[in-house]
C-alpha cells in the first residue's frame, strides 16, 4: 500500500482503487468535470395520482414526492468516497484531510434531491471539511443551466419537436409500441393483474401524443406511463425493498426488471436524445462543461448535480453510449455520473479528453456496498464518435474534442457567463 493510501486509510476513507492506464503512457490527469444524476429518490407523483392507474396501491415512501431518500444520501456519500480515492490516486485532488480552497466544487439544481445529492458527494469526498454545495439562491425559479426550456431561456417549438421525434421512428410512435409489444404487455400484467375489463387501468385505452409539459417533451399514453412505472420499480429496487415488494412481487427477478426498463429507455431516447430537443435542453450544460475543462484557476474537480434528463441531453448531443451492470444501455442510473477528464502528456504537453461513466450497480445499491479493493464501483469508458482511436487511453485530442462538442451548442441557448 502506498503512503497516500495509508494516509487515506488512517483518515477513515473507504478505499477503492480504479486506476486507468494513464501512468504508463505519461498521462497526468489535470482536471475533471462530472455531470451527476441525483441519487435514489421517491416517485415524483403522489400515491393518489399513481394509484389511479393500478389495481394495488403503491408503497408509501417516507419522504415527499421526488425527494432524495436517506438511503439515497448514504449511497451518494459512498460515491463521493469512491471519487476521492480514484481522483486523489491519480493526482487530481488532494489526498489530505481537506483540499486547498477552491480545488473541489459542486453546483446543484434547485430541487431537494439534487441539492442533497451534491452535499452527500462532498461529504463523501472530504467528510471532515464541511465543503458546502452551491446552487441558485432563489429555489422557486428553474435554474437555466439545468432547465433552460422551463426557465424560458431556450423554448422548444412543439411542432418541431414532434416532427424530429416522428422522423426518427418512421412517422409513427406505433412502431415503438409494436417493437416492444411483449414488454408493454408484461407491464400491463404487472400493473393490473386480473383487470381485463377495466379500461382505465394501466396502459389500456391511452392516447399516444407528443406534448410539452413543464418545459419537458413527453409522449403521453403507454410510452410515458410504462416509462414512469418501470422507473418506479427500479427505484424500489435501488431503495432496497425486498424482492417480494418490488413491483408488488410480480416480477420474476431483477433480470426481468432490466428487460422492462427498455421501455424507459425508449421514452428517454426519443424525448431527450433526439438532436433538436437535446440541443435546446443541453446547450447550456455543454457550454458549462467546456468552461469547466478550460478553467485556468485552482479548480480541479467540478461536479454538476442534476437529473437523468441532463445526462441524456449531453449524451444525445455527442452520440455517446455506455452500459452499467444491472441497467439498460445508456441509462443515466441513479447517482451515476458522466465524467469529462482532461489528461496531459507529460512528455510533450499534448492534452486529451477522456469520457467515462461512473455508477453503482443495482446489486451494489441494494447491498449498500461500501467500496473496497474487492468491490469497485462500475466504470465504463466511452468512445466519442469522430474521435475513435485518435488518442491514448481511449481519449480524444482536446482540440478535436472542443471542435466536436462546440459544434453541438446552440449559442442562443447558452448565453456566456461566469463559469460556475
Quick tags:
alpha/beta, eight-stranded mixed β-sheet, single chain, 14% strand, globular, 420 residues, two-stranded antiparallel sheet
Note down, in words, how this protein is organized:
- The chain has 420 residues and is of the alpha/beta class.
- The protein is 37% helix and 14% strand.
- The chain has 14 helices and 10 strands.
- Strands 1, 2, 3, 6, 7, 8, 9 and 10 form an 8-stranded mixed sheet that branches. The protein has a two-stranded antiparallel ribbon with strand order 4-5.
- α7 crosses α8, α8 runs antiparallel to α9 and α11 packs across α12.
- The longest helix has 20 residues.
- The radius of gyration is 21 Å and the shape is globular.
- Decide which structural class fits the backbone: alpha/beta
Rounded to the nearest angstrom, the distance between the terminal CA atoms is 36 Å
Number of strands: 10
Q: Please provide the ordered H/E string of secondary-structure elements.
A: HEHHEHEHHHEEHHHHEHEEHEEH
- What is the alpha-carbon Rg in Å? 21 Å
Amino acid at each position: 500500500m502506498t503512503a497516500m493510501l495509508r494516509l487515506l486509510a488512517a483518515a477513515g476513507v473507504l478505499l477503492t482503487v480504479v486506476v486507468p492506464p494513464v501512468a504508463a503512457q505519461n498521462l497526468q490527469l489535470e482536471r475533471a468535470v462530472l455531470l451527476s444524476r441525483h441519487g435514489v429518490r421517491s416517485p415524483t407523483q403522489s400515491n393518489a395520482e399513481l394509484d389511479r392507474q393500478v389495481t394495488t396501491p403503491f408503497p408509501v415512501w417516507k419522504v415527499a414526492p421526488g425527494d432524495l431518500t436517506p438511503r439515497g444520501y448514504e449511497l451518494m456519500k459512498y460515491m463521493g468516497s469512491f471519487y476521492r480515492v480514484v481522483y486523489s490516486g491519480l493526482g487530481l485532488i488532494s489526498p489530505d484531510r481537506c483540499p486547498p480552497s477552491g480545488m473541489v466544487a459542486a453546483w446543484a439544481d434547485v430541487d431537494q434531491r439534487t441539492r442533497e445529492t451534491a452535499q452527500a458527494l462532498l461529504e463523501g469526498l472530504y467528510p471532515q471539511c464541511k465543503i458546502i454545495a452551491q446552487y441558485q439562491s432563489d429555489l422557486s425559479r428553474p435554474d437555466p443551466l439545468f432547465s433552460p426550456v422551463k426557465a424560458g431561456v431556450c423554448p422548444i417549438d412543439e411542432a418541431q419537436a414532434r416532427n424530429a421525434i416522428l422522423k426518427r421512428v418512421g412517422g409513427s410512435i406505433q412502431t415503438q409500441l409494436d417493437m416492444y409489444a411483449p414488454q408493454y404487455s408484461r407491464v400491463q400484467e404487472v400493473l393490473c393483474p386480473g383487470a381485463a375489463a377495466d379500461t382505465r387501468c394501466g396502459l389500456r385505452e391511452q392516447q399516444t401524443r407528443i406534448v410539452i409539459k413543464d418545459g419537458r417533451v413527453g409522449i403521453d399514453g403507454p410510452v410515458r406511463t410504462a416509462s414512469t412505472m418501470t422507473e418506479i420499480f427500479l427505484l424500489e429496487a435501488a431503495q432496497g425493498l425486498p424482492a417480494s415488494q418490488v413491483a408488488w412481487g410480480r416480477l420474476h427477478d431483477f433480470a426481468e426488471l432490466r428487460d422492462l426498463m427498455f421501455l424507459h429507455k425508449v421514452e428517454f431516447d426519443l424525448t431527450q436524445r433526439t438532436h433538436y430537443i437535446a440541443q435546446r435542453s443541453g446547450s447550456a450544460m455543454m457550454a458549462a462543461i467546456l468552461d469547466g475543462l478550460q478553467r485556468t484557476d485552482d479548480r480541479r474537480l467540478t461536479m454538476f448535480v442534476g437529473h437523468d434528463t441532463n445526462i441524456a441531453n449531453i449524451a444525445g448531443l455527442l452520440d455517446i453510449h455506455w452500459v452499467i451492470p444491472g441497467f439498460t444501455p445508456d441509462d443515466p442510473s441513479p447517482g451515476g455520473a458522466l465524467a469529462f477528464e482532461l489528461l496531459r502528456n507529460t512528455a510533450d504537453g499534448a492534452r486529451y479528453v477522456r469520457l467515462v461513466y461512473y455508477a453503482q450497480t443495482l446489486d451494489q445499491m441494494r447491498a449498500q456496498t461500501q467500496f473496497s479493493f474487492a468491490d469497485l464501483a462500475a466504470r465504463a469508458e466511452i468512445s466519442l464518435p469522430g474521435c475513435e482511436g485518435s488518442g491514448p487511453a481511449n481519449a480524444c485530442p482536446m482540440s478535436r474534442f472542443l471542435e466536436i462538442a462546440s459544434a453541438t451548442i446552440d449559442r442562443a441557448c447558452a448565453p456566456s457567463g461566469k463559469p460556475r
